[in-house]
Amino acid sequence: MIDFEQFKTKAEVIKYLKATKDISCQTTAQAEKYLRAHLPKESYYQDKIIKHIRELIPSSFVWKAAAGPYSRQGIPDICAVVNGRYYGFEVKRPFIGVLSKIQERTILQIRAAGGKAYVVTYPDEVTRILQKEIGGTP
């Protein structure tokens, strides 16, 4: 299995896939199709981030936002209260995840109301965001 975290950009991973002999990706379109089929689902990244926040700051209150017909659309996937501050983390798959318009608007509304909201993929991004909360420097 490929460790997709080693790549910084979509172009890097596409180049890698096209150069790898055991993967049949001769074109960019084939590489993008392979990427969509083989990247872990968003829930995989969500679970990693929830566990990471709980380990990083045990006093935090963290939950996965419920999605369904009776819930508000656009709420970030992961919500957390850390030291009295609200954080929303919209989790996207690397290289292919795209925010919807409602997600963009909701993030702006959260920020306007004084909360913090971010688009993330990996736990290390969350660590950087929460650095001030864990006693480090931002």
UniProtKB/TrEMBL annotation:
- GO MF entries: nucleic acid binding
UniProt-listed InterPro entries: Restrct_endonuc-II-like, tRNA_endonuc-like_dom_sf
Mind telling me what this protein is named? VRR-NUC domain protein
